[in-house]
Amino acid sequence: MKNDSIQYLLEKYREGTLNDEERVELERLTHKDEVFAAAGRKVRGIIWQRVSLAVAAVMVAGVGMLTILPHEQEPLMAEAREIPIQSVETQQAASSVIEAVAPQQALKETQQAASLQRKAKAKPAIKAVTTSPVVVCNNQCDADSVISDIRKFLSV
User: Which of 29, 35, 34, 22 is nearest to 1 (CA)?
Assistant: First the structure.
């Protein structure tokens, strides 16, 4: 009987002649409220799952980008520094003394130059300071700047 009444009410629904009492009876027999509630729960579950997956994917992509991208830091460039080159006056003095000596006094002057060198080693003389540029670089230098710094260094 229930099956016949559902068929009869569905036929009237298709024809459009269903009244309010028959509509309520059709909804009760077909469990319309329960079906729509279950479908709503499934839809909310699917939406929640998709939103959760989308948020997780965005978070993973963000963390991946942060680890892949280089950290902001000032680029390191080549620079020219002045490093003093010290020449010992004792070597220059000894060579000038030896060159200025006459051949017959060479032995005597050589002994004096050797004593000057020993004194210079014991008590250092004032040293002349000259400077020349030195190229300092690391692995992040621009090739053009390194080449120009090397040319400057070699031209000095």
Answer: 29
Q: What is the dihedral of CA 26, 32, 33, 37, to 10 degrees?
A: 180
Residue 76 and residue 138 in contact, taking contact as beta carbons nearer than 8 Å: yes
Of 74, 91, 79, give the one whose Cα is nearest residue 148. Answer: 79
SS3 breakdown of the chain: % helix, strand, coil, rounded to 5? 70, 10, 20
pLDDT at position 101 is 45
Which pLDDT does position 126 carry in this prediction?
A: 55
Of the candidates 83, 86, 85, the residue with the CA atom closest to the CA atom of residue 126:
86
Write out pLDDT tens, residues 19-36.
999 999 988 888 889 999
The angle, 0 to 180 degrees and rounded to 10, between the axes of the packed helices 20-30 and 2-15 is: 130
Neighbour tally for 94: CB within 10 Å: 19
Q: What is the mean pLDDT of the chain?
A: 75
pTM recorded for the entire structure: 0.36
Q: Please check the confidence at residue 67 and state whether its pLDDT lies above 90.
A: no
**Are the beta carbons of 132 and 152 closer than 8 angstroms?**
no
